[in-house]
């Protein structure tokens, strides 16, 4: 019994030294914000949380951003004597301000479309009219790993990323065409924070477990001895 008590005492005495040397593990946490596709042109603020310094030491911040655009082209050939073709191009720019300072140029050019001579109805249908939808998308990344850049991302609450979308969609073709073009665009941003976190050394945790087991055995042995003593009397 005395030997067991001595062992437990030695283990408990060793705990502070074992726990005083934590190890560092690398962890990540991510946040996102999205602005759904809306009629252009628009300006919008995306919000992302600052890194919480209580989690550990920030070592990297990887931003990824995406943009989508779509344009609907309604075209009517108004020439009463001949067929005509047109080509539509969906184009937009999505700009992400600080801390990204990045621009996405979205573009998608459709195939030439032939429309028959005017059928007498400006309805963007029939043989002389059509409606065509073209979409475009793009993405990019931006990594922050410098000390000043990371320091600017540490704090509480949210920081703002201003985003702007401008539509530049066009179509080309001969004269005598009626047209209507409408555009939408959307954007999203994600940040992945990588940070170092100090955790207790596994050896220290193992000693805690051994000490607890030893104390449990000591208590059980003492209880058995007391029961035996009572039985003897």
Question: Any key phrases for this structure?
Answer:
single chain, 233 residues, alpha+beta, 2 domains
Strand proportion, as a percent range, falls in over 45%
Compute the CA-based radius of gyration: 34 Å
Compute the average pLDDT: 86
Query: What summary fits the major beta sheet?
Result: 6 strands, antiparallel
Q: Termini, distance in Å?
A: 22 Å
The strand count comes to 10
Shape: rod-shaped
Listing every helix as H and every strand as E from the N terminus to the C terminus, the arrangement reads: HEEEEEEEHEEEH
Structural class based on helices, strands and sheet pairing: alpha+beta
Tell me roughly what share of residues is in helical segments: 10-25%
- Which stretches of 5+ consecutive residues score pLDDT under 50? none
- Overall number of structural domains: 2
Total helices: the number is 3
Task: Give a description of the structure.
This protein has 233 residues and is α+β, with helices and mostly antiparallel strands. The chain has two domains: 1-22 and 201-233, no CATH class; 23-199. It contains three helices and ten strands; from the N terminus they run H-E-E-E-E-E-E-E-H-E-E-E-H. It has helices at 2-19, 147-151, 202-232, and strands at 23-39, 42-49, 57-77, 84-96, 102-109, 113-115, 129-144, 158-167, 170-172, 177-199. Strands 2, 4, 5, 6, 8 and 9 form a six-stranded antiparallel sheet that branches. Strands 1-10-3-7 form a four-stranded antiparallel sheet. It is rod-shaped.
């Amino acid at each position: 019994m005395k030997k067991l008590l001595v062992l437990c005492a030695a283990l408990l005495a060793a705990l502070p030294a074992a726990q005083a040397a934590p190890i560092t593990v690398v962890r990540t946490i991510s946040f996102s914000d999205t602005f759904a596709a809306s009629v252009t042109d628009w300006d919008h603020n995306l919000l992302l949380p600052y890194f919480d310094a209580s989690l550990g030491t920030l070592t990297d911040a990887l931003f990824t951003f995406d943009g989508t655009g779509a344009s609907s082209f309604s075209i009517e050939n108004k020439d009463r004597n001949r067929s005509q073709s047109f080509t539509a191009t969906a184009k937009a720019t999505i700009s992400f301000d600080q801390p990204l300072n990045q621009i996405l140029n979205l573009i998608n050019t459709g195939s030439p479309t032939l429309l028959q001579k005017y059928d007498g109805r400006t309805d963007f249908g029939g043989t002389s009219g059509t409606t065509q939808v073209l979409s475009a998308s793009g993405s990019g990344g931006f990594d922050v790993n410098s000390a000043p850049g990371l320091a600017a991302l540490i704090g509480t609450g949210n920081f703002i990323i201003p985003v702007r979308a401008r539509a530049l969609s066009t179509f080309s073709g001969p004269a005598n065409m009626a047209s209507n073009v409408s555009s939408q665009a959307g954007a999203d941003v994600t940040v992945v924070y990588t940070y170092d976190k100090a955790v207790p050394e596994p050896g220290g945790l193992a000693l805690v477990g051994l000490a607890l087991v030893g104390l449990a055995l000591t208590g059980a042995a003492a209880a058995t001895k007391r029961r035996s003593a009572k039985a003897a009397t």
